[in-house]
Amino acid sequence: MDEIKARVVGTLPRDLIIDLLDTAVSRARQAHELIRDNTDLSGRSARGLEGQARFRLMEKGFQDACEAHGGLRLEGDIIPGTDLRYFQPFMRFGGDGPGVLLGLASMPEPRELPTRNQSRLAGVTLNYRLTPRLDLEDDGSTAQPGDIFVLLLFARDPSQGGRLQEVAIGVIDTEYQGYLAYETVESLMKAYAPSTSGADTVPDGEPLVRLKRKPKAFRPPEQPDSDEAVDGSAE
Fold this sequence. Notes:
Blueprint: H1 2-11, H2 14-38, H3 43-68, E1 72-73, E2 91-93, E3 100-106, H4 118-124, H5 126-129, E4 148-156, E5 164-172, E6 179-184, H6 185-189, E7 224-225, E8 228-229
Parallel strand pairs: 3-4
Antiparallel strand pairs: 1-2, 2-3, 4-5, 5-6, 7-8
Helix pairs in contact: 2-3
């Protein structure tokens, strides 16, 4: 776990992590206000539609933030060296050397694994499929030998609309049965050198960690999208 954390901290810029946190918080609020102010839905219907909107808004903000900090979207729709397809944005950091492929996922609850879909199942294979024996391009726009697949994870706050309960960075094992590493953004930021500007480590905003975790997260049935489950439930 220490090696994985060191890779994440050494590869993903500190300011990127802060911007991703800002984006997650603001896009969650935006999705809530969008459904609240522009529909007459309530209950499960409102929560389900809000979940779909939240993920799509976050996905766009996630890609924009990554590109602003030098991240490159993985080209094509097949993991290099495999026949495994993906449909969500995978953003690569690390240049020519072993780096990080960063994806996005929502959790039903903090530390709970996100829904398996075709993209994530393809992504987690990077931990063992990418070796120096593979013939991969070295321009930084595709996966490189030794890359690891990392997810920016978020869990909504079930007690208050438009809020997030937790934002974290996680690495899932190749069997998709558990986390090899999991750190909240607040905890991860402590591993970075202090900002030269003297700014706070984590920007002000909604609390990310709450002790109260009820009611249980609402989980509507999965819906197909590009041959995989949409990561847009209200969890």
